[in-house]
Automatic annotation (TrEMBL):
Stated name of the protein: Succinate-semialdehyde dehydrogenase / glutarate-semialdehyde dehydrogenase
Keyword Chaperone assigned: no
Keywords: NADP, Oxidoreductase
Disordered as annotated region, ranges: 455-491
InterPro entries hit by this protein: Ald_DH/histidinol_DH, Ald_DH_C, Ald_DH_N, Aldehyde_DH_dom, ALDH_GabD1-like, GABD/Sad-like
Similarity section: Belongs to the aldehyde dehydrogenase family.
GO molecular function, one term: aldehyde dehydrogenase [NAD(P)+] activity
Length: 491
């Protein structure tokens, strides 16, 4: 696949980009290594200043940036604007919280003095997809840069303009040259970049296939990797649920990003007592969605990002029907210009249909009826994936069972699964490993260096070594914005 912007709403080729040559890639790797050597020493307060500037620039340029998202991958314009606003939020979150996350942790041992010092690792390769072409990059870059790492982005081939815009935003925010670079390269060039000794780790958000290939290589090279791969999230609705809210959320949860999100709900598992009513309202909800030009603010569902994805979704639906599934609504691509597929609900999907165990990256829901919570949990867990789960019940005993028994990285009760800068995000099973966001995500690419100082030190304590302040959140005035770690700086 060439590196190009093709408008998925009408198939127009907007712009083509040549892949970087081997020499150009080498220059960027050298620049990244050089940038890391000095950037890791830039005071945290200065990095935070740049990160806040980055947040405000995103907000100032939201209209243009959102239009770029919609042009390149077809997300409805209001959702694209929300994506940019969320990127600003993650920048502010890490600007605010990095000091706390990176503060040395004193550990009480029998030694004189022991603590954990968090250190950056170096240039990190980020292989990122197209479905949230800003957000998925920002949720990597904000913690990485605040920690003193530097980033090399290999974006999906169909969102080059979004990726170049991010590089420009980072630079304009004041981050030094080379701290974040976009590599417009072809897929086969990724191997050499990861092999390069200057690249110390890799994060992948994307398909299982990409995760396997890059994860295997990273494992062989003994380089740290974080994998955020596919999902087929369940959406369980039990009899005590608020049905109206569950249905409206179900429609939204299945069609977020035109149905192309790893954490979109894909399998709807509904208790027999309310199944018929849920089915009726769910069909109505999907039929009421406005499918069309994603640049229009009134559009709910735009085109799929590429012709290949459209063809893949169509083939999955056809194979499901051939295996015995029934189409309750939709089921067809919309003929004419653009990669449009009707919002679709399938029922009676048998385990023999490939789609039962696959991820569907389009606005197609699978609906199942279950007799009780045991059956609901068993069906929800009958998947190779383990990313998120949304479950709707007001019964405390059912809630506890769902929290304890769902095999996934995230459980939302009475709400749809969504990422949040403050909370860890990631999966288990074939959805990947490692976490993004929050303190957990930032620490994935840090060296937890153990420091033990066993001697008594000089007779007079060195002023910069003491006092060791242990941060006690409970003691801290929530309005106090002073840096509690000042004593640690420049140790
Ligand atoms: O494909 C994955 C989408 C993740 C969206 C999010 O982080 O909210």
């Amino acid at each position: 696949m060439a590196i190009e912007t093709i408008n998925p709403a009408d198939g127009t080729l907007v712009k083509t980009f040549p892949a970087l040559t081997t020499e150009a890639v080498q220059q960027r790797l050298a620049l990244a290594a050089e940038a890391f050597a000095s950037f890791r020493r830039v005071p945290l307060a200065h990095r935070a200043l740049c990160m806040r500037k980055l947040a405000s620039t995103l907000e100032e340029e939201v209209e243009d940036l959102a239009a770029l998202i919609t042009l390149e991958m077809g997300k409805p314009i209001l959702a694209a604007k929300a994506e940019i606003v969320k990127c600003a939020a993650v920048c502010r979150y890490y600007a605010e919280h990095a000091a706390l996350i990176l503060a040395p942790e004193v550990v009480q041992t029998e030694r004189n003095h022991s603590y954990i010092k968090w250190e950056p690792l170096g240039p990190i390769l980020a292989v990122m997809p197209w479905n949230f072409p800003f957000w998925q990059v920002f949720r990597f870059l904000a913690p990485a840069l605040m920690a003193g790492n530097v980033g090399l982005l290999k974006p999906a081939q169909n969102v080059p303009q979004c990726s170049l815009a991010i590089e420009s935003l980072v630079r304009r925010a004041g981050f030094p040259r080379g701290t974040f670079q976009t590599l417009l390269i072809e897929v086969p060039q990724v191997e050499a970049v990861l092999n390069d000794r200057r690249v110390v780790a890799v994060t992948v958000t994307g398909s299982e296939q990409a995760g396997r290939a890059i994860g295997a290589q990273a494992g062989w090279l003994i380089k740290k990797s974080v994998m955020e791969l596919g999902g087929s999230d369940p959406f369980i609705v039990m009899a005590s649920a608020d049905l109206e809210l569950a249905v409206t959320t179900a429609v939204k949860a299945r069609t977020v990003a035109n149905g192309q999100s790893c954490i979109a709900a894909k399998r709807f598992i509904v208790a027999a007592e309310i199944y018929d009513e849920f089915e009726r309202r769910f069909v109505d909800g999907m039929e009421m969605l406005r499918v069309g030009d994603p640049m229009r603010e009134s559009t709910d569902v735009g085109p799929l990002a590429t012709v290949k994805i459209l063809e893949g979704v169509e083939a999955q639906v056809k194979a499901a029907v051939a295996a015995g599934a029934r189409v309750l609504t939709g089921g067809e691509r919309l003929h004419g210009k653009g990669n449009y597929f009707e919002p679709t609900i399938l029922t009676n999907v048998p385990r023999t249909a490939p789609v039962f165990y696959e991820e569907i990256f389009g606005p197609v829901a699978m609906l199942f009826r279950v007799q009780n919570i045991d059956e609901a949990i068993a069906l929800a867990n009958d998947t190779p994936f383990g990313l998120g789960a949304s479950a709707w019940t007001r019964d405390p005993a059912e809630q506890q069972r769902l929290i304890a028994e769902m095999e996934c990285g995230t459980v939302f009760l009475n709400a749809m699964v969504a990422s949040d800068p403050q909370l860890p995000f990631g999966g288990i099973k074939r959805s990947g490993h490692g976490r993004e966001l929050s303190a957990a995500g930032m620490r994935e690419f840090l060296n937890a260096k153990t420091v033990v100082i066993a001697d008594q030190g000089p007779a007079e304590p060195e002023p910069d070594r003491k006092p060791i302040v242990i941060y006690e959140p409970a003691d801290r005035d929530p309005d106090d914005r002073t840096d509690p770690y000042a004593a640690y700086r420049n140790r």
